[in-house]
Specification:
Layout: E1 2-4, E2 7-12, E3 17-23, H1 29-36, E4 43-45, H2 51-60, E5 66-69, E6 75-83, E7 88-95, H3 104-118, E8 124-126, H4 133-141, E9 163-165
């Protein structure tokens, strides 16, 4: 593993390409949103995942969200990562389909974990939809623990914040 401009860089021999893992920036929004639109089974919220919503998230969590960028400067992976001071949370973890199974998801997750550790966070949670077979296989392979003893609840404060499912 090498670094370039303090960013993590790793080489994928099978495609002869260097991938840069770096913090997400405001200027990444359009390309990250475009990537989300290509991920089958993804859910995008109308308000939370809007430009304003993501900027607000990045303002609150300036050092923890990550993008993976290929040698053509195209974003091929992203993770929204934040915390509440106690527990970290990963949202919208994705890698472009033609770059999967090359270690990019692992490298991005490792970068998020390192960023959360730097902020003294000791635990991370995430939600993987039951029908997201690719995501669930990834997390099991990464040795994350599926919690069967808890129920997850949420309550919508804004009915206009609707989720759009990506086929």
């Amino acid at each position: 593993m090498i670094t370039k401009n303090n960013y993590k860089v790793f080489h994928i021999e099978s495609i002869y390409e260097d991938i840069v893992i770096r913090p997400m920036e405001y200027s990444d929004y359009d390309n990250v949103y475009k990537l989300w639109g290509t991920i089958h089974g993804f859910r995008i919220r109308s308000i939370d995942d809007s430009r304003e919503g993501i900027y607000r998230f990045l303002d609150r969590n300036p050092n923890t969200s990550i993008v993976a960028v290929n040698s053509k400067n195209v974003i091929i992976g992203a993770i929204l990562c934040g915390h509440d001071g106690r527990t970290g949370c990963l949202y919208h973890v994705c890698v472009r389909e033609d770059y999967r199974k090359m270690g990019i998801g692992n490298e991005m997750t490792s970068s998020c974990i390192k960023a959360l550790k730097n902020e003294k966070i000791n635990k991370i949670s995430l939600i993987a939809f039951k029908e997201n077979e690719v995501g669930n296989c990834f997390w099991k392979g990464e040795k994350w623990c599926k919690r069967d003893e808890v129920n997850y609840y949420d309550f919508s404060l804004n009915d206009e914040n609707v989720s759009k499912y990506i086929d």
